[in-house]
Amino acid sequence: MQLEGKKGLEMKKTSIALITAIFIFSAMLLKVHAEEGPLKIVMDDNYPPFVFRSDEGELVGISVDMWRLFEQKTGREVEIHGMDWALAQEMMETGEYDVIDTMFKNETRGKLYDFTMPYANIETSLYFHKNISGINDIESARAFPVATKKGDYSIEIMEEKGLENILEYESYEDIVNATGNGEVVMFVMDDLPAGYFLYKTGLQEEFRHTEPLYSNQFYRAIKKGDTKLLTFINFGFNLMDESEIDEIYEKWQGKSAGLSQETERLLLVGATGFMSLLLLSLGVSFYSRKQVREKTMKLEAVLLDKKELAERLEAVIDSIPDMMFVLNRDGIFIEDMIELEKARAFTGMEFGGKSLEEVFPPGLAKLYRSKLEEFIEKGEPIDFESEINEIESKATMNFECSLEEMGLDLQYEIRLAWINEEMILIVIRDITELNVSKKKLYELGIKDSLTGIYNRNYFERVLDRMEKEKGNFAVLVCDVDALKLYNDILGHVSGDEYLKLVAEILKDNLPEGAILARIGGDEFTIVLMDAKLKQLEELKQKIKRDLKKRNDKFAFVPTSLSIGYALRHVDGESVRELYKFADD
After folding, report:
1. Does an H or E element contain 122, and which?
2. Is 452 left (phi over 0), alpha (psi -120 to 50) or beta?
3. Residue 82: beta bridge partners?
4. Using an 8 Å Cβ cutoff, are 93 and 85 in contact?
5. For 167-190, how does the pLDDT look when each residue is reduced to its tens digit (9 = 90+)?
6. For the chain, what is the domain count?
7. Which of 330, 451, 498, 558 is placed for a possible disulfide with 503 were both Cys, Cβ 3.0 to 4.6 Å?
8. pLDDT tens readout for residues 374-396
9. Which domain, by its residues, includes 519?
């Protein structure tokens, strides 16, 4: 009994000593840093509600208030500077500032900086105008220019996905203002500032967005290797009470009926810190018990996460319209995850245990076999336990194909991705309607909706091309006479039919290789390559003869055209001047 009493006394002395050492270390750390010069902080100045400028130009927001509270808790003066995000990163890299805030963490930045604990979860989506259809992920936006902020993490993501036309703006607000001016119809932006600026400009009903492209977290970062400063910053923010942090968030985001994600994170951080201090105070005798408890909790969390992940994946597979198969390296279908209602092209076909050559016609089988071999040659499968930034492009392949050989007017996009060393996931997406929509959109931009011939937009493109080329180009201009009188007498519906008749006459007499366009209400133009004056005069007379025949046979009000033409004899002569001369 005396021996046990002595051991208990020794344990209490050890615990008291450890707690005393912690408080002494904390006091020394705060005293040392408080005596140093101001801590220089740089951050984006246009990221509401975390940081933005008030009407008076003053920096305000969650991050600003958090640093002011840090200043009170530690006694270290803080200077906060806000600027365009790209410039903020450049100035941080030159050593102008001690800390950069509102930063995402990635592999490239990890080589430059050390990061504090994360303090906010941020989701990023692709936003597009409501009149654009067929957009459901970043890959489907490849045909469009996509705007984002200079220096933004999204640039790296878009380049990895193969987007080439990326428009970079100084700030998120500049991007949203550009959408109001019609300069931008698609952009990638973090959801919090996107919602703020769209509502601020009254454009919230004009834009839709995809599911989040990715999610990341806000960190505070310092120069790589400055462990002393990193420890001080983490320690300073851990001194803040939960109620103080909640008050800041409620100030800028409003109150919530339940716990916010930020509050839950802070609770978790606080609980972890409390458990660490408790471990020190209780001493070595409780160390093993805590370790067992923590490992058990982690195991339960992992099992729960895996169950939730499996449920989510099952829901995703059920909801998406894509078809999925599993192939081995030899091109044999191991299993199919296809639902018949998703597969217009493959209904009733058997896949399990068959090769590509047994399932598809020879031409398609040869194409798929070559793509499979090319994919395998790119390298070994990816390591799914690695960071997402380490996944290389060789892990996936995309290509498009048509099923004309199977007697089907369908187009598909096919994606290959490694499952493990032996199995490959095949995802097939029907893009027929998307391609049809793209074709229709293109034709709407170059065709006249009334007559079906080319419009002025296409005619201008032809002139631009001819300016750069050599040859005897000719322009023939046809003005419809008395169109206003025709409209006044018979009405605009009859006037439209009149214009269609003129277009039909001109198309019937159009030489091979010539281009016909309606460039105004009553004006049509024919562009001819390698023409001669004799050919132009013959064409003019041919059109007039055809007009006369139709007038004699059908017309209540005779159709009449004024026709002029001009020919370029010398290379370099302005084609637009030629058109003006023909029109006059």
Report:
1. strand 120-129
2. left
3. 43
4. no
5. 999 999 999 999 989 899 999 999
6. 5
7. 451
8. 888 875 443 333 333 333 434 55
9. 447-583
